[in-house]
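Entry 14. Two folds queued back to back today. First construct below, sequence then structure tokens.
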Amino acid sequence: MKMLHISIGISGLSLLVVLALKGFSLSAALPFIPLIIIMGFTPFFIHRYIRYSKIQLMETAFPDFLRMLSEAHRSGINLPQATVNASKMDYGALSPEIKKMSAQISWGIPFPKVLKLFSNRMGDSKFLRRSSAIILEAFRSGGDVAEVMSSVADSSRLIKELEADRASKFNQQLVIMYAIYFIFIVIIIALNRILLPMFSLTGAQDIGGVGLTMGNLDPTVYRTLFFHMIIMQAIFSGLLAGQVGEGSIVAGLKHLMIMLTVGTLAFMMFIPTQQLVISVEEPYEVFQSGALMDLTGTVLSTDNMPLQDAEVRMTINSATYVTRTDNIGLFYQKIILPSTAGRYKIKIEASVDNEKGETSIEVTVG
């Protein structure tokens, strides 16, 4: 609970800082809110996952501990002394708890009370709390505690084997979930590449003799929308993977972090910030080897205003051509195509007043 309060505090403080930097404009700060939440709650998620992993290791070692107590009790050693003896052995993540129980017994605390305190400390594990409650009830009722412990140990081992079997069978489904997420990212990148030329459309277009009115398309809005979609897909896919595969949402935090990292890196690499919009019509004809190709396009700002005297750099194979836009944002360049047949990518970059933009087209040489 303390880590949760810390994470909420970090998120709230970070949000106030971003709002202050953006002039307390919620619309301007909106793209940063998902990142603020993720960064703020990362300490809480890490703490919860470390605790979850520790509990899983303790649950795995618990049947061996119970079996040792059962055998010791059958040989005539009482349970408090058997617990003290067990504290000298290695039970992995469970060892600190066993040593704590041994210390409490040496202080004169009754064994039922020690077992009850252990159960309370294991509040995050229903498995350990239920097992402790069964043993405690058998101890209080005067039943065959050794037999109860042995049965609980066998049941615990069977449960863990079933969980491991479920996890192994889920691996195939997990691969499918990752594949779906990666395909989703590819679709987002493709949508960005397809929509990018549309950003240069003006408010009025004449298509097939019919006048259509379109609002200005701001690439920043679409870029933010795509980023939020990638984040939401990563969060829900990761948490669902943990719930289905290991029966715990907390277990999905590792999948969430992996998907978030991959999605963020892909977004930064393949959907860069476009401060300038470059519109070039992609040719569909097949050019002859070594032919001259007329490359014409426009360079606009994100609010669809033409930019004059912008430097335009075009690269195909190792050849680079540089030109500048005229007073209405147009540029024109003759490009010598390669002499070898194939499909070639022309990278087009524009820059003016520290603002940049880039796009690419493909040409076919026959």
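Second construct, same run, same settings:
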Amino acid sequence: MKTNPGYLVLENGTVFSGQLLGSGSHLGEVVFNTSMVGYEQIISDPSYAGQIVVLTYPLVGNYGFNPQNMEAQRSWLKGLVVNQLCNGSDHYEQQMSLGEYLYDHSIPCLQGVDTRALTRMLRLTGTMGGIITTRLDNLADLQKQAGCLTPPPGGYVGQVTRTDMKMTGLGPRRVVLIDYGVKRSIITSLVARRCQVIVVPAQTSARTILDLEPDGIVLSNGPGDPADCGFAIATIRRLVLGGVPIFGICLGHQLLSLALGGKTSKMKFGHRGANQPVKDLRSGRVYMTSQNHGYTVEESSFHDKAVQVVFSNLNDNTVEGLIHQELPLMSVQFHPEAAPGPLDTGFLMDEFVARVDAYIGARELSIRRVI
């Protein structure tokens, strides 16, 4: 596959050069991910909508590409930046090379970049807008474009969410999953625990969700600023009143926090990688987690003492998980289903299912008493 000289122009005027697989100009927020493996899942995670992803591991593509490992039907990121793109691999599950997939799906990949220097800059100055291009004719205009990054009308969640309901899995538990940009692995993890999962669009009303008679509700991961999702926050507030167990993951954690009266703020460069250390404040145990987010929940913003912080990030002490002392609500900032990443916190899926079973049991007991 032919490449041409290409450039990443940042909003601060810095230019990184390399070889571009693809063509045209591509604008996005430049972020970095420290995972050593899992590029199939990373490029297909809807949470990266509107972003240009820098992979810090220097060799990418060494085990090829298998579409069955994707987290969504398509990729939503604006571009990929790597040090070295490997197109020669012999993995037994490989169906094509990573370069072939990127080229066939018009995903620009700037390779040969000093990703170490680029990552250091993003860590020092914070994430910023950038544009991948093949031309530097007017650097001032490119820098201006990079600094004028705005989300699409309705936000990125409206861009990536599904448009219809879908039911999958069989089991005694009915779980409604609100799709803000869900990863397939979350659905797979619930189905493996004998849940019937009904995936609904992000804009689905609370009344419609409750009419489905769920035994549990999952608020999925997704892209963008949680404060842009006012419609979702209002819906969650109504769902909380329904008494059904709710589990928020990543963006879902942030939205649940906002619905409970908390606040969120943008982080300097976020957490994106499969090696984030998180401490369970109840047991003192530390887990390695997979994360992908650029916003955090402000612990000091909670005035409701019933909201308890139960997980904390060991690198910067940001909030990583909450439970409600009186209502069946729990949420985590990281990804308990991993993909890619360690499986250390998969027990949280079991904890949610246990809450669902307790809800079902209490409901059936109440019915028997009435009879």
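Quick look at the second one. The radius of gyration is 21 Å. Residues 4-146 form a domain with the Glucose Oxidase; domain 1 fold (CATH 3.50.30.20).
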